[in-house]
Write a structure and sequence with these properties.
With 110 residues, the chain is mainly α. The chain has 5 helices and no strands.
């Protein structure tokens, strides 16, 4: 196993994504997320967005992506994303709704 690779996108990688996209709105988002606890709704939503965007569920620890490590893989994923930052923000909003729905549905479970 590679020391910097995990099964899913780790929140510890978020601060390293500050320069992965152009624009002040992106940098502001990353700075905001970097100051939040890993369990915050925003960090969970961002992580879910990155898991979906980077296809983390298909990553194999013997793969090239895993050899890069999660942070570098995430940077490459964001740099290679052909959509705009606005499209990424829409995907983040979709992930936030999914996280909220999950939390709402599981809030009262033992």
């Amino acid at each position: 196993m590679y020391p910097e690779s995990e099964i899913l996108f780790p929140a510890r990688s978020i601060p390293e994504l500050r320069e992965a996209r152009p624009g002040q709105a992106w940098r502001d988002l990353i700075e905001h997320l970097a100051q939040q606890p890993e369990t915050s709704e925003d960090v969970l939503a961002f992580s879910l967005m990155m898991i979906r965007l980077g296809n983390c569920l298909t990553c194999d620890l013997d793969s090239y992506r895993a050899s890069l490590g999660c942070t570098r893989c995430a940077q490459r994923t964001l740099q290679g994303f052909r959509g705009s930052n606005e499209e990424l923000f829409k995907r983040l909003d979709e992930a936030r709704r999914a996280v909220r729905q999950f939390l709402d549905n599981h809030h009262n479970e033992p």
